[in-house]
Amino acid sequence: MNKNKRERKFLKGFKSIQSTIFAAVSVLVLCAVLAATAVSVRYTNSTVYENSAIYTQTIIHQLNQNVDSYITYMDNIASVIAKSQDAYQLLYQRIGEDEAVKEGHRKRLLEQFSTISERT
Asked: Could you list the pLDDT tens digit for every one of the 120 residues in the chain?
């Protein structure tokens, strides 16, 4: 009997068809808004995740290319210096050789280093 009384009190709030229709439409609109919000949030989250993953991969790829390019550049510089006759003469000259010749090799090698450092 208590259940019947509660149902009657609840239904008394809807005395007219207008209030019943208003309540039904309100519930339907609320459900539609909640469903649209849930779908929107899920779609947005997945899109943001995909975009950030693509962006991160692009940045890593570019960074990898930059590092490879820099290593190749430094390898080329090392190769030029290693093949330099002045570097060879300066490093492997015999003890007691002319200091003027040694100084000439040293100056040319320093000029080479200076030119390389100006270009980098």
From this structure: 566 666 566 656 666 788 788 888 999 999 999 999 999 998 899 899 999 999 999 999 999 999 999 999 889 888 888 888 887 777 777 666 677 777 887 888 888 888 877 776
Q: What is the CA radius of gyration of the chain?
A: 41
pTM exceeds 0.85, yes or no: no
Q: CB under 8 Å to 86, separation ≥6 — which residues?
A: 105, 106, 108, 109, 112
Q: Give dist(CA 112, CA 26) in Å, integer.
A: 82
CA distance linking residue 81 with residue 69, whole number of Å: 19
Cα–Cα distance for residue pair 1/17, rounded to 1 Å: 26
